[in-house]
């Protein structure tokens, strides 16, 4: 489990794409949880980091996986030299401190894990800690944020309709070409012309989606390729290593992707 427990430091760079910032602020002000859906590497996590910084809230990020238990989120008893002591999990800490708990790829978590979220996400805003018998009332500053890729299976099926209707849902996608080029240029420190070329390449690969690819070139992959090129790796090699190979194991598909690369460079 990846867990970041910090008060955000430097302002993360985030290029606003639509009215997501305003929606998020309103959800937070009204004590509503937020749900961000969108493909891998399109900026969901960066957005949450940016908002945590903007609202000056501690951020607890949990990368969900199928082994994640409710205990991992809520906390556990540990045994030390002086006996047994209780350690809060990231969800409990966020509730106690009044911060954001961000569950990334929440669909990956088991359903019994997400059950602890129900009373927190609905009107009660409560966290029940079974092991200690404690019930915590979430302070106004607390916000639950979950994200998932709608291309995969759907968490919302496992939630009570009354709970899931409380989420303010935002759909993210890869940004428009000019915005994405700005992101790639800024994040990788490359010039606008090269960023524009990479984004055009990325969009061409995205149009191949229905061919053999399970996933398409994300903004993240374009940034990786850009960083390699900036570091002096030849463009073709950078695109092979950062775009074609990560997207497919099938040699023919990799070759087809490299044909698209060759058209753009
Ligand atoms: P995910 O949607 O998988 O959570 P991330 O938020 O980790 O994706 O985005 C991947 C990378 O793409 C980020 O680290 C950041 O460099 C970049 N990125 C994507 N969208 C934006 C954006 N709107 N503004 C700034 N950076 C972005």
Automatic annotation (TrEMBL):
Q: Which UniProt keywords apply?
A: ATP-binding, Nucleotide-binding
One Pfam family named in its UniProt record: CbbQ_C
| Entry's Gene Ontology molecular function annotations | ATP binding; ATP hydrolysis activity
Domain of life of the native organism: Bacteria
Q: Which Gene3D superfamilies match?
A: P-loop containing nucleotide triphosphate hydrolases
The UniProt record lists the CbbQ/NirQ/NorQ C-terminal domain at 180-263
Positions of the ATPase dynein-related AAA domain: 35-167
Q: Residue span of the signal peptide, if any? A: none
Family stated for the protein in its record = Belongs to the CbbQ/NirQ/NorQ/GpvN family.
Q: What is this protein called?
A: Nitric oxide reductase NorQ protein
Source organism: Thiopseudomonas denitrificans
Its lineage reads: Bacteria, Pseudomonadati, Pseudomonadota, Gammaproteobacteria, Pseudomonadales
């Amino acid at each position: 489990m990846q867990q970041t427990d910090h008060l955000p430091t430097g302002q993360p760079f985030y290029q606003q794409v639509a009215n997501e910032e305003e929606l998020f602020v309103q959800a937070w002000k009204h004590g509503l949880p937020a749900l961000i859906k969108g493909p891998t590497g399109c900026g969901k996590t960066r957005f949450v980091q940016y908002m945590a910084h903007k609202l000056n809230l501690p951020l607890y990020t949990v990368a969900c996986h199928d082994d994640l238990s409710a205990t991992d989120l809520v906390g556990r008893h540990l045994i030390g030299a002086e006996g047994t002591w209780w350690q809060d999990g990231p969800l409990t800490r966020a509730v106690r401190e009044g911060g954001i708990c961000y569950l990334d790829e929440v669909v990956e978590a088991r359903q019994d894990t997400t059950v602890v979220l129900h009373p927190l996400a609905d009107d009660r805003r409560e966290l029940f800690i079974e092991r200690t018998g404690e019930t915590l009332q979430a302070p106004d500053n607390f916000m639950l944020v979950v994200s998932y890729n709608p291309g995969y299976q759907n968490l919302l099926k496992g939630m009570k309709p009354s709970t899931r209707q409380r989420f303010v849902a935002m759909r993210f996608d890869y940004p428009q070409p000019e915005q994405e080029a700005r992101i790639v240029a800024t994040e990788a420190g490359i010039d606008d012309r090269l960023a524009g070329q990479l984004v055009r390449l990325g969009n061409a690969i995205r149009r191949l989606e229905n061919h053999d690819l399970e996933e398409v070139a994300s903004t993240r992959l374009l940034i990786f390729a850009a960083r390699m090129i900036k570091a002096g790796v030849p463009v073709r090699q950078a695109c092979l290593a950062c775009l074609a190979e990560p997207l497919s194991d099938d040699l023919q598909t990799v070759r087809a992707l490299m044909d698209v690369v060759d058209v753009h460079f």
